[in-house]
Amino acid sequence: MSLFTVKQLTKSYPAGKTAVNNLSFELNKGECLGLVGESGCGKSTLARCLLWIESIDSGSIYFKNEAIEQLNERQLHPYRKKIQIVFQNPSAALNPKLKIKDSLIDPYAQYRKELNLSHFSYTSKDAFVKQLLEAVELPSDLANQYPHELSGGQRQRVTIARAISIEPELIVLDEPTASLDVISQGAVLTLLTELRETLNLSYLFISHDLAAVRQMSQRIMVMKEGKLVDQFNCDHLFAEERHPYTKELISIF
Predict the structure, then answer these.
(1) What pTM did the predictor assign?
(2) Domain map (residue ranges) of the chain
(3) Rounded distance, CA 49 to CA 163, Å?
(4) Which phi and psi (to 5°) does residue 216 adopt?
(5) Protein fold of 2-96+168-251
């Protein structure tokens, strides 16, 4: 079943650069859809458009058959609860002045009147934070620490915990392991796979790393200079009909 549908999405900037050019795709419920392409190809711009952090020039974005671009700010509020994002740099994503427990509780505080949680239960702030930290395999005593006291891998696990705290249906993962060392990268990818299965999540996994995209995804899209040049199931990665740019990416991973 299609959870997210994008039709002919285009986004340009005042300087004249078209970052996303007439892009269309579907993301199915429960799947991880990979998006790979070199830096500057428009992947992160697409992510910001999907979350309506940035408006689009033309095209349509549907979440469960509802056109997002037609909603006003009040109508967008429940939509924002259903789709979350994990950014590349966890240090920039976390407020350095807030303890980890306060960063984790913030999404719940924003949406508590609308939430009907099934995987987590809120009996107290401390109990809720402990559940979230356990879900991402972090010790509960990190709750009272500040972001600078954690390792890069721990900080990224905290941002993942914050993303899952309100039990969204879709998480956009925008280069979630790019700032981590190799060991931390593998551990975070394994964690994300387990969470998708346990919490019935769907992912849009964005990366320039084809190996990571292949590990995580059931289907892959390839983006070049703002356009989708290839889409295929993972088991067709090495098929002869792959786009020349896809073959170029394959040759270097």
Answers:
(1) 0.93
(2) 2-96+168-251
(3) 18
(4) -90, -30
(5) Rossmann fold (3.40.50)
